[in-house]
């Protein structure tokens, strides 16, 4: 039995409701921008970043967690990069830049396959299989 009620989707005015591969690639691009911001903070020769905000003193840091926490990210997919950075900081206390860069590289590779026509589900299946294989090799 089919419902006769129309689908109602409530979005804020100005919200983009695009879908499909182009939207996935757009999300990946947003995540790559965030990774590019913190990329140069990595390692012993990591560069400092000067972050200026209207309501606080300027901050100079080369700590990826600090940079990520001070960014005002509005893109939903890019916010995930901030979330994984915060989760890494809370769980381990270090490696926040590395986890953002690792995620960005996985997304960069995924983008290449998506642009070549690989279905997103096949890509996810491959990533899950790779995860299982890596975990089986790392397990004692």
TrEMBL record:
<keyword id="KW-0143">Chaperone</keyword>
<dbReference type="GO" id="GO:0005524">
    <property type="term" value="F:ATP binding"/>
</dbReference>
<dbReference type="InterPro" id="IPR017998">
    <property type="entry name" value="Chaperone_TCP-1"/>
</dbReference>
<protein>
    <submittedName>
        <fullName>T-complex protein 1 subunit eta</fullName>
    </submittedName>
</protein>
<dbReference type="InterPro" id="IPR002423">
    <property type="entry name" value="Cpn60/GroEL/TCP-1"/>
</dbReference>
<dbReference type="GO" id="GO:0140662">
    <property type="term" value="F:ATP-dependent protein folding chaperone"/>
</dbReference>
<comment type="similarity">
    <text>Belongs to the TCP-1 chaperonin family.</text>
</comment>
<dbReference type="Pfam" id="PF00118">
    <property type="entry name" value="Cpn60_TCP1"/>
</dbReference>
<dbReference type="InterPro" id="IPR002194">
    <property type="entry name" value="Chaperonin_TCP-1_CS"/>
</dbReference>
<dbReference type="InterPro" id="IPR027413">
    <property type="entry name" value="GROEL-like_equatorial_sf"/>
</dbReference>
<dbReference type="GO" id="GO:0051082">
    <property type="term" value="F:unfolded protein binding"/>
</dbReference>
<keyword id="KW-0547">Nucleotide-binding</keyword>
<dbReference type="GO" id="GO:0016887">
    <property type="term" value="F:ATP hydrolysis activity"/>
</dbReference>
<keyword id="KW-0067">ATP-binding</keyword>
């Amino acid at each position: 039995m089919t419902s006769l009620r129309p689908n109602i989707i409530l979005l804020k005015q100005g919200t983009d409701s695009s879908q499909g591969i182009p939207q996935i690639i757009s999300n990946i691009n947003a995540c790559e921008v965030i990774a590019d911001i913190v990329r140069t903070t990595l390692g012993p020769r990591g560069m400092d970043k000067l972050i200026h905000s209207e309501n606080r003193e300027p901050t100079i840091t080369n700590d990826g967690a600090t940079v990520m926490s001070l960014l005002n990210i509005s893109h939903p997919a890019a916010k995930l990069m901030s979330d994984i950075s915060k989760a890494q900081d809370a769980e381990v206390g270090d490696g926040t830049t590395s986890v953002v860069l690792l995620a960005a590289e996985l997304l960069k590779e995924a983008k290449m396959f998506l642009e070549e026509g690989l279905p997103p589900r096949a890509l996810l299946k491959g990533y899950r299989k790779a995860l299982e294989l890596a975990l089986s090799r790392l397990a004692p």
